[in-house]
Amino acid sequence: MSSDSEIDVVSVREEEPKRSLQQAKKEPTTSYRKRKAYSLSKKLEVIEYAKKNSKTAAAKRYGIDRRCIIDWFRKEEKIKSEAGSSKRPRYHFKSFYILYNASIPNSMTLIQHRGWSI
């Protein structure tokens, strides 16, 4: 296990902050907030800590937004089931792959009907 102050961050992406209409009329800002993707094991660790203490205490301890922890609580079963599998689930690619490689004549029509490009 890592120390309490360390967090396993999988990826970081900068995102432009949401601005109100009044702010948009003013000079454009160059500040960005960073979005972080956490590993499944870290999510489970935070969930377990939050169960023993509270979601707010977990948010303060790990430096993660409380709203994010609440969402992880809702998705706990899904996170647990994915923890033993691959790093990144790819659900939508599998369904496209099956349709694309199927020998059914209707599969190409179905792909075109759904608006997927080939």
From TrEMBL:
GO cellular component labels: nucleus
Main location: nucleus
Pfam families per UniProt: BrkDBD
Region (Disordered): 1-34
Subcellular localization, as worded in the UniProt entry: Nucleus
Compositionally biased intervals (Basic and acidic residues): 11-28
Coiled-coil stretches: none
InterPro entries: Brinker_DNA-bd, Homeodomain-like_sf
Domain Brinker DNA-binding: 35-81
The protein, known as: Brinker DNA-binding domain-containing protein
